[in-house]
Amino acid sequence: MSSQRHENTDVPPLTESIAPGTATDPPIGSDEPSTLTVDGTTVTVSASATLIDAIEAVETEDTVPALCHYDRQDIGPRSECRTCMVETDEHGVVPACSFPATDGLEVETAADDAALARDVNLDLVLSDHNLRCTTCGKNGRCELQDAAIENEVEEPRYGVLDDRDAYEPMDDSSSFIQIDRNKCILCNRCVEACNDVQVEGVLRMEGQGQDTRIGFQSEAETMADSTCVSCGHCVTVCPTGALVEKGIEDATTIPLPGFTQKNSIGEAYEQSEQTDGPMTPKKRAEATNEHNDSERSSSHRTDGENDDGGSWP
Ligand code: SF4
Ligand code: SF4
Ligand code: FES
Question: CA dihedral in degrees (108, 111, 113, 118; nearest 10)?
């Protein structure tokens, strides 16, 4: 959608060779300040504001996560995650981050359809995320973690990424930035920071469907081999532990025997007999039951018989 919008505007390319993000899209919204209501509260927002600006200006009934929204600079809106859905009187359920604020619009954050859409989309994001928060350098300062806590997610309805065969190796090749794609939520912020703000043209989204990942415009395989100049802007805007500054990647890790942030997706975890605990409460309970069942069947063996049914020496 964004490339189509570029074709239809006079926005010049940043350089001949860099693929931009959506930050160079033309402004959306009204040319004038708009006055609208959010959960019954009247608010006036500036020209080109979106609904998220109005939502952030008032006390809302529900929290609205907005995971791919980044308002500290001219990045986006991206409309990637759809965790920011709200209901409007005129247009139904819309993404607040990119929907223009217009005069007279009535916005409801707690409307059933909008709340369900936010919940489902947040669970979808969680379902494709490595939730090993205790060994993550962003533990305690992660926007996805905050959103899950604020929205009282106890068990994501689509599970979590716990198929270790699907894990991608961490890219630890750069001296400055560590990439853990298993924690990437494909919000696109880093791509825009790199291309549209720093104008370095290093990062891009590549692949399709569940194979979509952040990669390099230069076709490099690793960060070290890419054209990255280590400015760190992508790390600053990343909402999760997918991009972390080297040297502080373990800063908020909770020490666990045998676990480090680096091996939390690697062999040490997989080989441990004690660490096959899944992340969701349901799976944890199932695993505990299995464990108890196996303990019970072991305790029922005949005296002198070992786990394999043989005899102790
Ligand atoms: S650190 Fe490298 S990849 Fe990140 S924004 Fe800067 S140039 Fe781009
Ligand atoms: S690496 Fe971070 S900023 Fe980039 S797309 Fe993934 S989650 Fe978003
Ligand atoms: S914050 Fe609106 S779609 Fe992600």
Answer: 70
